[in-house]
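Below is our example:
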Amino acid sequence: MNENKTTAKLALLSISLLLTSANAVNGALPMMKKAMHLSATQSELITTISSIAVVIMVLLSATIARVIGTKRTVALGLLLVGVAGIVPMFVSNYELILVSRVALGAGFGIFNSLAVSMIQVLYSGNTRASMLGFRSSAEPVGQAVMTIIAGLLMMISWHMSFAVYLIAFPILFLFWKKAPDVDHFQKEDPKDIMQGAPVDTHHYPAKTSPLVWLFVAFCIILMSNIVAMNVRFPQITAGIMGTQFNSSNILAVMPILGIIAGMLFGWVNKHLGKGTFYLGIIIFVLADLLVAFSAGNFGMLTIGFFLSGIPGSLIIPFIFNSLPKYAPKKAQAFAASMMIVGFNIGSFLTPFFLRGIEIVLGSTVLTAPFSFLAGLMLVIGLGSVIGARMVK
């Protein structure tokens, strides 16, 4: 099979459309919370619990691929996403829904890292760089489109919003029919595969820096803040506009802003360097403060929410782009995997993190945790500046 055919490339890219779709049904959370008499923490867990399964399966996916093959492993993950994703269409039991969301996360985790590694094996040079760029854009595009579809389906019932995961089946069909057999390419001469690829002249450190683990800790906090925005916004909006207000269209706009910020990352990083990281922190602090002090002001709340879609597209690629400075070449894949694990742990812990902040602050107001998060981000930003100067 010719890996350079457009259909083959589309098949490989299509699987990334699903990877961030756990958030696609966030607009239904207020209705689910009311229908099943859930607490804020319980309703938020419906979105975030899938992340713990992602962590486990990301670590196991390479082993599964060695046993049954890469293409079959991805197909298994897609099948699991499709089947587990639609379970809440038919049940109203909270515990069963949580189990189905864990299974959904397992499906994501099975092909999460393979979505990248398949491109790395099949392509080289500018083609590889372009494919990886398109793959990164596919995630927020998929999230935006699936959020809009879920919002339209939610007009029927909250159960129907989960029908959005049926899209996994045509993607599975496309991938199985058109995606190249990656394992076949891995058996070929590496020189043939890498022909035309640029020579890696980067000087890697001899051992992994402890800063890598600080990056992992920061990834946990960063993703908790990002997910907090996504799961709290529909609930805060429902408190202002009413439970029946459909926030899905607004939720769909934020990934689009992330796409734009991601497209500008190269230019921003070229001109600002480390300032790219600080810019992301500043924007997140501002977003958190706007949400924290919105006090029933829907306009201020929405602006804060939109702004929160920008920092991740600046900070996350900055972290991955910085890894060669802090880990040996042979440890790059492990370091990158640890970042992914950190992101998913942060996502899973978000409801408990938010509840913990509410207990500390002595407030159950849904916007209360964001003032704390703003302060935490500010401390991290200042600590980074001081740390960078001390290293000099």
The first helix runs from residue 6 to 14. The two ends are 52 Å apart (CA to CA). The domain at 8-196 is CATH 1.20.1250.20 (Growth Hormone; Chain: A;).
